[in-house]
Amino acid sequence: MIGRLNHVAIAVPDLAAAAATYRNALGAKVTEPEDLPNHGVTVVFVELPNTKIELLHPLGDGSPIQGFLDKNPSGGMHHVCFEVYDILAAREQLKAEGKRILGDGEPKTGAHGKPVLFLHPKDFDGTLIEIEQV
Ligand code: CO
User: Is 54 an annotated catalytic residue?
Assistant: First the structure.
């Protein structure tokens, strides 16, 4: 069912500093910050030859990233995103396997303008998983 690794997301306490680290220390191509109010985050993408790194920073009150940063003040890996070709078929397969979909279970529009769902970390060895339809 799953296809390519679309991105690995890292929550960061200082988005400009993190973007500069990837740009300068690692020589990576880094996109401009983009606010995603529906997700409560500002994102920057580090573009690698085979995948992307998504740097996440809280946006607004009640951001899901704020709680993560409160527990991990220096930042850390937040989720991995796998590509799927049919997100509703993927959802039904996951539910049939007893895996929990977060939120109301309906796909939301993600950072790339495509439908995404998040899966419960307790069902995946403590890792938050995002699936994105491509
Ligand atoms: Co993501």
Answer: no
